[in-house]
Design goal:
383 residues, Ribonucleotide Reductase, subunit A, 66% helix, globular, binds fe (ii) ion
């Protein structure tokens, strides 16, 4: 990577870390941020090892301790599906075919790109949409690998025995999700991007944190909530039939996963924490939300094809204002913010910060356990 591009990235990352208000949250995030943002461990081309430090919770009395969780477990067993035989893999996918677009052309503001000196013809636009879609699906794939490992960890760590039964079904779900996204990218789009440094940082933070409830909060509420919104948005936007069916199946699984987090954390965060512990979690969740809101700007795509054509800052504002990305963001946080309220982390102390981010209108929307399948697969609210 050219030195200028590398320096711009470092300045960008440093500014993001300096913006973290709570010093103890900054200290907690720093080691993962160094590995993810500065050392780019996720992009070394080598397998990555992370050191887990949580305690595994055994119970040799096998208590039936949570009827709601047991019902979710029964539902999850009933709704398992076979990724090899239940999806129409025989579908012919041509990313360059404008008749069956992966994403509509309105996803990108082509004038905004032209204003930055990049003018594309028809084929180049189609090529760009293929790359953007591959970039997003690649991040879904990497997020799913994080979810696979995290669900295995929360299954080990949860003190709720019925939660262990349910957690095991989620591990299977996430393995299936890794399989279908990986197969789709390799066989159908023939293009896969490396993991985004910010996503790596979040996953690294969750894997190495010893506190079991932080793993639930990070993966089951924040990352899963965001994923649910992202998958629903892409499901509505794409016309490609295999991708649509694949996303529909994944969304049906993901809705259960967020509920796992809600069932676990709602009672714990409503009376089971000291004031200091609660404040720490409120601030930690907010900083992860900020990271997710501001930092997923397709820099892997920028470094591949645009670093010599515009500055990183210019690229950031182009991607930030892309109509498709705005819609993604809206639906993602429409899913995520009400879940934070549902577990009790949107206290008056932090509410103003969420309002400043423009999320105030999402606060009173229904949490994920109140959404029906029609809500998840239906039309998004107006952007
Ligand atoms: Fe998943
Ligand atoms: Fe999931």
């Amino acid at each position: 990577m050219p030195v200028r591009t590398r320096l711009e990235a470092w300045v960008d990352h440093t500014n993001a870390l300096l913006a973290v208000e709570n010093a103890s949250v900054l200290m907690q995030m720093a080691p993962s941020a160094i590995r993810g943002l500065f050392l780019r461990r996720g992009r070394s081309g080598e397998p990555t090892k992370m050191k887990a430090s949580h305690r595994v919770h055994f119970d040799f009395e096998y208590p039936a301790d949570d009827p709601g969780m047991r019902r979710l477990y029964e539902k999850a067993k009933r709704l398992q599906w076979n990724s090899s035989t239940d999806l129409p893999w025989e579908t012919d996918v041509d990313p360059m075919n404008p008749e069956v677009p992966l994403m509509g052309r309105e996803f990108v503001d082509w004038n905004s790109l032209a204003n930055r000196g990049v003018v594309f013809n028809k084929d180049e636009r189609q090529d760009f949409l293929w790359r953007v879609t591959s970039w997003m699906l690649s991040q879904f794939l990497h997020g799913e690998q994080g979810a696979l490992m995290a669900s295995a960890q929360v299954t080990e760590a949860t003190p709720i025995f019925d939660g262990k039964y349910y957690g095991a079904t989620q591990v299977m779900d996430e393995a299936r999700h890794v399989e279908v996204f990986s197969r789709y990218l390799d066989e159908k789009l023939e293009l896969r991007y490396e993991i985004n440094d910010n996503l790596f940082t979040i996953i690294d933070g969750l894997m190495t944190d010893s506190r079991w409830d932080i793993k639930f909060l990070g993966m089951q509420i924040l990352v899963e909530g965001l994923a649910l919104g992202a998958f629903s948005t892409m499901y509505k936007m794409t016309s490609e039939p295999l991708l649509k069916e694949l996303l529909k199946r994944v969304i049906q699984d993901e809705a259960r996963h967020v509920n796992f987090g809600l069932l676990t954390l709602r009672p714990l965060y409503n009376g089971g924490l000291t004031e200091k512990e609660r404040i720490e979690r409120e601030d930690w969740a907010f900083e992860v939300v900020v990271l997710m809101r501001n930092r997923f700007l397709a820099h892997e795509l920028y470094e591949e094809a645009f670093a010599h054509r515009m500055s990183r800052r210019d690229w950031n504002s182009f991607v930030d204002q892309m109509p498709g990305m705005s819609l993604f963001r809206r639906v993602m946080f429409e899913r995520l913010v009400p879940n934070l309220r549902a577990i009790g982390l949107l206290t008056p102390r932090v509410m103003e910060r969420y309002e400043r981010m423009g999320f105030g209108e999402f606060v009173h929307m229904p949490a994920s356990d109140k959404l029906t399948e029609a809500d998840l697969l239906g039309s998004p609210s107006a952007a």
